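Lab notes, practical 5.
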Amino acid sequence: MSSQDLTPQRRIAERIDQALPLQTSRIPRLLHFPLLFVTSLVLSATLYTAASGFLGNDLGSVSRRLTEGWQVTGLVAWRAIELGIGWWGSFDGFDYASLIVLSRLPTFFLLTTFYNIPVTTVAGCLVIDVIANSLPFLLLRPLLPQHKSSLVKSPGSAPSFINELPLRLTTSLLAAAIHATVIYVSYQTWLPIHLVENFDGLRDISAAHSSAPLYLIANLLPAGYAARDLLFTPYAIKRGETERNVQLVFDPETATFAQTLEQNFWGFSRPTKFLVKRLATVTAVTGVSTWLQTFVTLEGVESYGALGWSGMWALATALTGGAFWWVGGA
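Output from the prediction step:
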C-alpha cells in the first residue's frame, strides 16, 4: 500500500510506531528503570527552571521550606516508587500521564480553590509534571493497543468501539460527576471545619459554601477523562477479549483445597481482577501522593488535615472504579 492510500490517522499511528520507543535493545534491561528515573528528574528540574518566569512566586508563597533531610528524601523516594509502580505495572506513556493527572490534581485543586493560586500557574505545573513523568515512558516503552487504536479505527473491533466519542464523553462525565458529588457532599458536611482546623494559611474558604455541583463537574473533567482512560478503557477491552475466548470453568469436584479457597475469595473474572488491582493501585497512589504533596510541601498543613483531604479524593477514585465496573458489566 502506498503512502497516498493511508488515512491521516494511520499515518500518525505509523509515525508513533516508528519513533517510539527508542531502540532500547542496546541498553541493558537492568538500566531501563534507572534511566527512566533519572530522565524524569532531569526533565522536571529543567522544565520548572525554564518556566520559573511564567510560574512566578505564587507557589513559593505557600510552600513549606524543606529544611529536614527526611522531607527531601521522602519526596524523592516517593517519586521512585511512583515511577516503579508505573514501570512494573506495565503502564505506557498515556497511562502514566493519566495517573499523574489523578495524583496531582487534588493538590492543585486545593491551591486554586482555597489558596487563590492562579489557574494559569497550577495548569503550568500540571503540564510540566505530566510531561516530565510520561515522556520517559513514551521514549522507553511502546504504546498499548488501546492507545494506538484511538488513532486508527477498525470497525467492529472492541478498541474502536470503546474509543468512540460518545462513550468517551459519557464515561468521562460519569467519573467527573462522581468526584464532584464526593467533594460537594464533603463541602456540605465535614470539610469546611476540617480545613479551618488543620490548614493554617488558607486564604479563602468561601468555595466550600458556594460551589455548585455543575461548576465542580466542569473543573473535574480532566480527572474524569484520566480515570476513564486508566480504569474503564483497559477493563472494557479485557471484557471484550474474555467474551471472545473460551472461559475456564471451576469444577468443585476436581479442585484442590487451594483452588477452592481462591475461587471463594478471588473467584472473579479476569477483567474484574484486573480492574480491582488497577483500582487499588490508582487509589493508593492518589491517596499517598496527595498526602505527601499537602503535608510535606504546603506551609501550615497538619498531617491529619492532609489525611482527610487525600482520603476524600481516594474515596472518589474508588467509587469511580466501582461505577466503571458496573458500566462495563452492563
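Observations recorded by the TA: The chain has a mean pLDDT of 86. The two ends are 40 Å apart (CA to CA).
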